[in-house]
């Protein structure tokens, strides 16, 4: 729980506990309130609340629908991501299938055409060479014929390489990249699907609806608590142990819990106590000033009819004195 919300209560309970310790009570005791474990259900997305199915104070079972946020935008985003995942799957399938037979046939035809052009260019250059030596044609014409023949040979080599690439098929690195792209797209779609599912707020445990901070039509920011539940089989006493009796209170110590309006005490056991004090004066912690310290503790109720007790009821807890 947020300590800032309980600061006034902390100071009041701590000062009251100091007064009780100073009155000479036989049993060491501390003051506090009865509490239940609380869980907050945060908003998974900033969407408008379109339906509320429960009310504050209502007892609900695990799996009960509590409220629903607007689905339109998240559903559209999920549809887009799923389409991207299908596209990535199609690309991978194409890579794994390799080139089509028609592409290989086209590459072979391109190679044959390049070889024919190369043969024609070589023959022309061969015929032009003796004419050039006899100076019957210009030297520039011979040079152009030689360059054309060389270019045609390069075209043949390029067509041969293209055909060889198709015949050898897709590289394993390309297939690995395609699989990674598909996995990433599927993961993004899965995350969005979880977000869409969370827009229908479901009770994760059985308990009581303690508060619904937002109303129908509100649009809470991401992470804001849409519902707060009180859960658990039994409540516990949240008390502030004064420094003079801190040494006698340990985890596992037996205690008796007294509630305002009930004469009979409930048995309890200390389940947690802080090592750091909750209330510290601004002056030096020496001598009598040290008695102003208090330590937050939780005392679980181990018996009695406590399942229906409300949270926030003031309690007084007595601890067994050392040696008893």
Automatic annotation (TrEMBL):
**What PROSITE patterns does this protein map onto?**
PROKAR_LIPOPROTEIN
Where the record annotates domain YbhG-like alpha-helical hairpin, the positions are 77-194
Which keywords are on file for this protein?
Coiled coil
Q: Which PANTHER family match?
A: EFFLUX SYSTEM COMPONENT YKNX-RELATED, UPF0194 MEMBRANE PROTEIN YBHG
Chloroplast recorded as keyword: no
Report the main location listed first in the record. Answer: other
Q: What is this protein called?
A: HlyD family efflux transporter periplasmic adaptor subunit
Which Pfam families does the UniProt entry name for this protein? Answer: HH_YBHG
Coiled coil located at which positions?
64-169
Q: Where in the cell is it found?
A: Cell envelope
List the InterPro entries: HH_YbhG-like (IPR059052), UPF0194_transport (IPR050465)
């Amino acid at each position: 729980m947020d300590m800032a919300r309980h600061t006034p209560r902390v100071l009041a309970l701590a000062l009251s506990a100091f007064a009780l310790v100073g009155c000479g009570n036989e049993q060491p005791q501390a003051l506090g309130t009865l509490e239940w474990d609380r869980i907050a259900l945060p908003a998974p997305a900033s969407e408008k609340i379109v339906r509320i199915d429960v009310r504050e104070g209502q007892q609900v079972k695990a799996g009960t629908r509590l409220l629903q946020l607007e689905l339109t935008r998240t559903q559209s985003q999920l549809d887009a991501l799923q389409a991207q995942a299908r596209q990535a799957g199609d690309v991978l399938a194409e890579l794994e299938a390799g080139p089509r037979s028609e592409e290989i046939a086209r590459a072979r035809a391109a190679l044959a055409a390049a070889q024919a052009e190369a043969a024609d260019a070589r023959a022309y250059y061969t015929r032009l060479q003796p004419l050039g030596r006899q100076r019957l044609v210009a030297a520039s014409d011979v040079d152009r014929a030689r360059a054309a023949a060389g270019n045609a040979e390069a075209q043949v080599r390029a067509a041969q390489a293209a055909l060889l690439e198709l015949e050898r098929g897709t590289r394993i690195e390309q297939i690995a990249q395609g699989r990674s792209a598909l996995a990433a797209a599927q993961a993004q779609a899965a995350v969005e699907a979880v977000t869409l599912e969370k827009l229908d707020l479901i009770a994760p445990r059985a308990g009581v609806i303690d508060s619904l901070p937002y109303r129908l039509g509100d649009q809470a920011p991401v992470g804001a608590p849409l519902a707060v539940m009180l859960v658990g089989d039994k409540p516990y006493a949240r008390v502030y142990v004064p420094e003079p009796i801190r040494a006698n209170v340990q985890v596992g110590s037996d205690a008796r819990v007294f509630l305002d309006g009930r004469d009979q005490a409930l048995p309890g056991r200390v389940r947690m106590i802080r090592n750091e004090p909750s209330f510290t004066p601004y002056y030096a912690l020496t001598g009598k000033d040290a008695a102003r310290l208090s330590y937050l503790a939780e005392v679980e109720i181990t018996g009695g009819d406590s399942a229906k007790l409300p949270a926030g009821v003031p309690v007084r807890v007595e601890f067994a004195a050392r040696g008893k």
